[in-house]
């Protein structure tokens, strides 16, 4: 899902403050990246995060160890980039119905994590986030961007009148995704189509019933990168200081009733 956004995050991770000479023009950089990510994916499938090392990645990928260190610097940075790269294939449906869109998205998430190696990628990133502040930040940004991208499904439903106009789009998408990650990371149960269908139905019915409407008071929902800037808050000083209020001109001169100011009277 969101291949463009995923590419931006991947570039941020792998090419942020690059060492001079570490990024070569042409296709060699792309081939190096693909080889390293594929090798990491294969290593996670065989041994898991606990056994993953830079040396194993370099050996399996055929990329020199110094190159791997120069471009990524750590195992955690590689698996974060791998997570973004792999999950970008989860599509955002546009069926004209929120119920069908949520089911399509849930089925995509479920199908992705039904693959054991994809599960291991997410487990590895969560484990890395506990140890590395960088990984924790990237995990937070990843899920924020995923929710922002998927929120378009709810915004379309609002425009069609399927859900209340003040529905919190972020809350709907969070409710759809949360059961998958509870099953993946906490209960350790299977992720299958039954989970996708029940999760999508629950999120849809709750949204239709107004469960996710914005509260009258409370913190604002998280902002997405593409949101327009919010309106500036009112200036409290101008409200307290009359001299800072816009000044109106003097009232027009009033003459006798029915007579224009300055007009001659008989």
Describe the SSE topology.
Blueprint: H1 3-15, H2 28-47, H3 54-61, H4 65-71, H5 75-87, H6 98-114, H7 116-131, H8 133-160, H9 169-187, H10 193-208, H11 236-240
Any idea what the radius of gyration is? 28 Å
Q: Helix fraction?
A: 55-70%
Shape from CA axes? Answer: elongated
Low-confidence stretches: 2-26
H-E string: HHHHHHHHHHH
Largest sheet: none
Rounded to the nearest angstrom, the distance between the terminal CA atoms is 83 Å
Percentage of residues in strands: under 5%
Structural account:
This protein has about 270 residues and is mainly alpha-helical. Helices cover about 60% and strands about 0% of the residues. The chain has 11 helices and no strands. It has helices at about 5-15, 30-45, 55-60, 65-70, 75-85, 100-115, 115-130, 135-160, 170-185, 195-210, 235-240. Helix 2 (about 30-45) packs across helix 3 (about 55-60) and helix 2 crosses helix 7.
Short description:
The chain is mainly alpha-helical and 266 residues long. Helices cover 61% and strands 0% of the residues.
List keywords for this structure.
single chain; 266 residues; mainly alpha; 11 helices; 61% helix; elongated; disordered N terminus
């Amino acid at each position: 899902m969101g291949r463009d956004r995923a590419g931006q995050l991947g570039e941020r991770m792998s090419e942020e403050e690059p060492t001079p000479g570490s990024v070569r023009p042409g296709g060699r950089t792309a081939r190096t990246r693909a080889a390293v990510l594929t090798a990491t994916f294969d290593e996670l499938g065989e041994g898991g995060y606990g056994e993953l090392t830079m040396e194993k990645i370099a050996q399996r990928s055929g990329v020199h160890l110094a190159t791997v260190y120069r471009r990524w610097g750590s195992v955690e940075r590689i698996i974060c980039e791998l997570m973004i790269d792999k999950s970008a294939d989860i599509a955002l449906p546009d069926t004209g119905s929120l119920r069908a869109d949520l089911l399509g998205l849930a089925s995509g998430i479920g199908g992705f994590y039904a693959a054991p190696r994809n599960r291991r990628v997410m487990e590895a990133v969560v484990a890395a986030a506990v140890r590395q502040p960088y990984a924790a930040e990237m995990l937070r940004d990843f899920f924020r961007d995923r929710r922002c991208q998927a929120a378009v499904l709810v915004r379309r439903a609002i425009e069609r009148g399927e859900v209340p106009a003040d529905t919190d789009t972020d809350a709907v998408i969070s409710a759809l995704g949360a059961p998958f990650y509870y099953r993946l990371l906490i209960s350790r149960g299977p992720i299958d189509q039954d989970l996708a269908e029940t999760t999508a139905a629950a999120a849809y019915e709750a949204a239709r019933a107004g469960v996710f409407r914005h509260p009258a008071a409370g913190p604002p929902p998280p902002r997405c990168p593409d949101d327009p800037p919010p309106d500036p808050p009112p200036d409290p000083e101008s409200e307290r200081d009359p001299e800072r209020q816009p000044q109106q001109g003097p009232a027009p001169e009033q003459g006798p009733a029915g007579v224009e100011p300055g007009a001659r009277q008989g």
